[in-house]
Design goal:
Blueprint (H helix, E strand, L loop, with lengths): L1 H17 L1 H10 L4 H10 L3 E4 H9 L17 H11 L4 E7 L15 E9 L3 E8 L4 H10 L8 H8 L6 E5 L1 H9 L20
Parallel strand pairs: 1-2
Antiparallel strand pairs: 2-3, 3-4, 4-5
Helix pairs in contact: 1-3
Length: 204
């Protein structure tokens, strides 16, 4: 989580320092207040709350949402933005998600109900980064695959990464197009795709 926070702050500062003329253009022509928003994120101390704590905050205001929040549901963009913009007023990391809404490879917590996953949420957008600690134990990984109704044989290639030895490890991914959307202030993610997708263009 420390690394993810530092990464987001670095990107915001880099854009503000190295691309200020572009940022000024976006601030004036696309989204007024964009530079202020980026500066706040770059200087913020990111909040850290468990999924359970976040859900308690959301459930206090169920009437404000199109999708009613409840423990066990996946967070929607409206929930993520409410947490960052209304409840905490800054970027927030939500961690320890219910195991049933996350991938089989995420490591279970001691409670048996949640996994060591984290999402980095930012005001004005929602999720920017998703990550987790991976399950490094082969037997536990196979059990998770079976418990989720998946076929173990379909994941032989992944299981071999454990079968022949590994170490405890974690990882996260930042949505590149979502980052561009956030930094430019554009209204639709289609407008920031460096390689636009077109119908029937996939060869393999």
């Amino acid at each position: 989580m420390d690394l993810a926070e530092d990464f987001v702050k670095f990107l915001m500062k880099w854009a503000l320092e190295k691309c200020y003329a572009d940022m000024k253009f976006f601030d004036e022509r696309i989204q007024p207040g964009l530079i202020e928003t980026m500066t706040k994120v770059a200087n913020a101390d990111f909040g850290r709350v468990t999924y359970t704590e976040a859900m308690k905050e959301l459930e206090k205001n169920t009437d404000k949402f199109e999708f009613k929040p409840y423990w066990g549901c996946d967070l929607q963009s409206e929930h993520e933005r409410y947490l960052t913009e209304k409840v905490y007023g800054k970027p927030v990391m939500v961690y320890d998600y219910p195991k049933d809404i996350k991938a089989f490879y995420m490591k279970l917590n001691a409670d048996g109900k949640t996994v060591r996953a984290v999402d980095v949420l930012v005001p004005g957008l929602g999720e920017l980064i998703g990550g987790s600690e991976r399950e490094e134990n082969l037997e536990r990984l196979e059990k998770r695959i079976t418990d989720m109704g998946l076929k173990v044989e379909d994941y032989w290639w992944y299981l071999d990464l454990r079968r022949f030895g590994t170490v405890p490890h974690s990882g996260f991914g930042l949505g590149f197009e979502r980052l561009l959307l956030y930094i430019t202030g554009m209204g639709n993610i289609r407008d920031v795709q460096p390689f636009p997708r077109t119908s029937n263009a996939l060869k393999y």
